[in-house]
């Protein structure tokens, strides 16, 4: 009509034909030239598929005053109906996409909508009135729950026909009740076979199916290992997990949205701990499956499991030998409390049979704790049982055993103490009977189809507690779906949204739900929750269980009067006192044998310490008497007390006795002797470093600056200053004595040990002196000393083997602080005056700019590592000091010997980085060496510096050559006179004057 009215209005010459279903044929026949289509939106209709030119209506701006009279200048535009949507909103909501696609208007609805639009008014109000007048007529959707049931499995854990029948029954009951109201609940059964791989595979495959969007939750699996695999996938797939058997929350960073309807399995560990404290049990034996390990959670069970067998999965085919060996170990350890935590009845029977063979019988004082949620025929032997026992033998071991069960489970099996619990109401009894009447035929049908272990219709004789709990759990979840989806029906399309999952879990746990297994109260932890229920301690006698105690979180265990089957009828002990040799002491102390053993050990320790102290005091006093007698024989007078007013480091000269010369240093002579540092400490072996007579003021300042620096040091790897003598000439310092002298001579003397050339020695004699562990420990000591100096903002400037001393315990200590300087805010010290410096150990910036810093000490430490692994070889062997100076300034370093460990080679090279900021700190070096205690190993494939036989010995060398030898004050060495300050470098020294010109003869002997 619109086209006809337009043709008449504009007096168009045209012929109007009604083609109907012949439009496509006509257009194909008129293909040349192509016909022209005029439509409101031809690109969105079937016309777009035809070979024709498409033309939309021309743009037009109608006069709104004519709309009320159905008269318009734009007949095409005014009659267009288009769907508008927010693209971003559609991307976030699939429900909005479905609503937009399904939105259609019939002819009558179109005319009504046009009439409403022409009546005037607010367009939004008109649209809302139209939608209210025509409510949505949408078919009922579907929401799914997968129930994982172990149907085909060799494990005797759960009765699959009973569980499958309960799942089918809940679907039928919910369909009859119309719950949920907005969707139909579909229960899907899946056989997980009690296999972790099957459950995990299902969770992965569920993402690729078109039914994943309607999947609201997974119920199960019943087996613990498979449940843990599903629960770990729950956070990633935003899929709640409903547990209808006792499980523990799955570990992981992202908590699973799990509803543990059977309770938290870790509560059994806490209840067992309360029972152990009540009966004074401190030790026990345990056998557990990985699936039931939560019942022995160590954070809640503080019982010492001295013999614990965690079974592998699957069980090994060893004819039960693993159980027999476990029982023998339990009996050998004298344990009497035996805990079995397992789901599989075969494991429980094997443990009981093996325990019987080892003598772990109730009549012999053994106490067994077994699982409570086992199948009804859990004690009936099977032909494949290994080890095998008869039913009578198994009943003999199981007689009187204890089990912890949730109250709802014990109440379902009528095992609770009715004297302390109200009887079920008549409507509760009727509800259970009605449910079992509807459940039984479904269970029998499943049993006939072989949906479970061999048992046939006998499996359905009586409904167990787990099928009833599964029924309650699914009803609880259906109620949560009904309440959430009724309030917001569009959420049906977004069941895996995090907020919706959280809303469903919150709604399920906050509802006052009461089912076949009683009322549900919940405790929350993270995204999940577990059912709160007291645990009932049951005792099994002659095939029946009875309640003997009850436990609840935060409350003590109320133990009634169990019937113990021990020989004396008393509660069984944990076996700790049976082999106790301290029973008389325990009876005297009125404690057990463990407390008596601890008391005896403490007493013996105190006595040993007293004896050692008395012996040490006796030896000290005898040594003092002998020493005083020797002084009297030498006609020496007794020493006066220290004068008041002296510096605390000042030691009277009368308290220092020297008896031998150790060597000659740059400042004077070094002696060995003894010093009386305190009246109550006796005489101490010391090294006395003296300042030569006639020393200049500058030498005195240098000598005292070394002593002043050492006063500030207190570290186990730095030689300690014990005192100073400055009031009288000659000035001297008193330091701790180092038995083995300097490290260089120590290594040179043991070089033959590193090469394995032990002539008359025992097979292992001296091996520890040159072992990698010993060498690495010495390097670690030096690194720690440098780290300590760097922490105090000191730079040593002369780190070398000759300045590292070895104590009697072979602890390496850094010495010779004559060149040590304090650094300030710039963390470096600039050397500005002429002097003698060890060029072979110095860093490039020190040689070039005279700058010293902790990083330059790290360079010297790398050279020290070279000295240690080569056992005292001279760095840059064969080069003169001037050649070394040129070489190091040119960016070259020492050539490392072959055979070094790659890690050690990298460590040394890192110390020799040209850029001082790139070198590691001393603390980092110490950390690296501590992590590799055998890093340094001898590398003797290098030439060793030596003196020719025709050369004069060092003790007869001229003064100008002796000056340059840099002897350590604590090591035996020659004692020549010092050379003038302007003496040139010697060919036999490892130091040179930076201010002197090198000579052509300045070279080292090979």
From TrEMBL:
<keyword id="KW-0393">Immunoglobulin domain</keyword>
<keyword id="KW-0812">Transmembrane</keyword>
<dbReference type="InterPro" id="IPR050122">
    <property type="entry name" value="RTK"/>
</dbReference>
<feature type="compositionally biased region" description="Basic and acidic residues">
    <location>
        <begin position="997"/>
        <end position="1006"/>
    </location>
</feature>
<dbReference type="Pfam" id="PF01094">
    <property type="entry name" value="ANF_receptor"/>
</dbReference>
<feature type="transmembrane region" description="Helical">
    <location>
        <begin position="595"/>
        <end position="617"/>
    </location>
</feature>
<dbReference type="InterPro" id="IPR001828">
    <property type="entry name" value="ANF_lig-bd_rcpt"/>
</dbReference>
<dbReference type="GO" id="GO:0005524">
    <property type="term" value="F:ATP binding"/>
</dbReference>
<keyword id="KW-0325">Glycoprotein</keyword>
<feature type="domain" description="Protein kinase">
    <location>
        <begin position="656"/>
        <end position="935"/>
    </location>
</feature>
<keyword id="KW-0829">Tyrosine-protein kinase</keyword>
<feature type="region of interest" description="Disordered">
    <location>
        <begin position="968"/>
        <end position="1006"/>
    </location>
</feature>
<keyword id="KW-0067">ATP-binding</keyword>
<dbReference type="InterPro" id="IPR028082">
    <property type="entry name" value="Peripla_BP_I"/>
</dbReference>
<keyword id="KW-0547">Nucleotide-binding</keyword>
<keyword id="KW-0677">Repeat</keyword>
<keyword id="KW-0675">Receptor</keyword>
<dbReference type="InterPro" id="IPR008266">
    <property type="entry name" value="Tyr_kinase_AS"/>
</dbReference>
<dbReference type="GO" id="GO:0004714">
    <property type="term" value="F:transmembrane receptor protein tyrosine kinase activity"/>
</dbReference>
<keyword id="KW-0808">Transferase</keyword>
<dbReference type="InterPro" id="IPR000719">
    <property type="entry name" value="Prot_kinase_dom"/>
</dbReference>
<dbReference type="InterPro" id="IPR017441">
    <property type="entry name" value="Protein_kinase_ATP_BS"/>
</dbReference>
<dbReference type="InterPro" id="IPR011009">
    <property type="entry name" value="Kinase-like_dom_sf"/>
</dbReference>
<keyword id="KW-1133">Transmembrane helix</keyword>
<keyword id="KW-0418">Kinase</keyword>
<dbReference type="InterPro" id="IPR001245">
    <property type="entry name" value="Ser-Thr/Tyr_kinase_cat_dom"/>
</dbReference>
<dbReference type="GO" id="GO:0007169">
    <property type="term" value="P:cell surface receptor protein tyrosine kinase signaling pathway"/>
</dbReference>
<dbReference type="GO" id="GO:0043235">
    <property type="term" value="C:receptor complex"/>
</dbReference>
<dbReference type="GO" id="GO:0005886">
    <property type="term" value="C:plasma membrane"/>
</dbReference>
<comment type="function">
    <text>Receptor for basic fibroblast growth factor.</text>
</comment>
<dbReference type="InterPro" id="IPR020635">
    <property type="entry name" value="Tyr_kinase_cat_dom"/>
</dbReference>
<keyword id="KW-0472">Membrane</keyword>
<keyword id="KW-0732">Signal</keyword>
<keyword id="KW-1015">Disulfide bond</keyword>
<feature type="binding site">
    <location>
        <position position="689"/>
    </location>
    <ligand>
        <name>ATP</name>
    </ligand>
</feature>
<keyword id="KW-0597">Phosphoprotein</keyword>
<protein>
    <recommendedName>
        <fullName>receptor protein-tyrosine kinase</fullName>
        <ecNumber>2.7.10.1</ecNumber>
    </recommendedName>
</protein>
<dbReference type="Pfam" id="PF07714">
    <property type="entry name" value="PK_Tyr_Ser-Thr"/>
</dbReference>
